[in-house]
Design brief:
two-stranded antiparallel sheet, 2 strands, mainly alpha, Helix-turn-helix transcriptional regulator, 5 helices, about 140 residues, Arc Repressor Mutant, subunit A
Amino acid sequence: MGTKHTRIADGDPTDPDDLLPEQSVLSLEEYLEMQAAIGNRTRFEIVYRLSHADELTPTELDSVLEIDDSTLHYHLNKLRDVGLIEKRVRTERDSDGLYTYYRATILGDVLLEHGVEELLRREWDFSEAYDSSET
């Protein structure tokens, strides 16, 4: 894979901290923690499934991810800590006896859609553009 050699363009900040507005909601470190959290395969899959399913219970996540309960909750807590998912607790159990649900936050949806998913979609473009079997 080739490399892209560019310099910082005029008007772009030389310090990455300056990419954020002065009154930023989150710090650069917090954004990087989000990126690091979604960089784990299991956590990526959790955010992906929550983003595309609206909300799921831990039981539903466990059945599609096939991981043990303690591992699932470790990853759910990590994603909650960095703000990529949120937990909703019902005051009463539903018909299946479940009352805890998780869903992706707006930040989780955006990081997924404009980060990892975008890179994966571009992979299709790259392979089509450089496919020599079509000539």
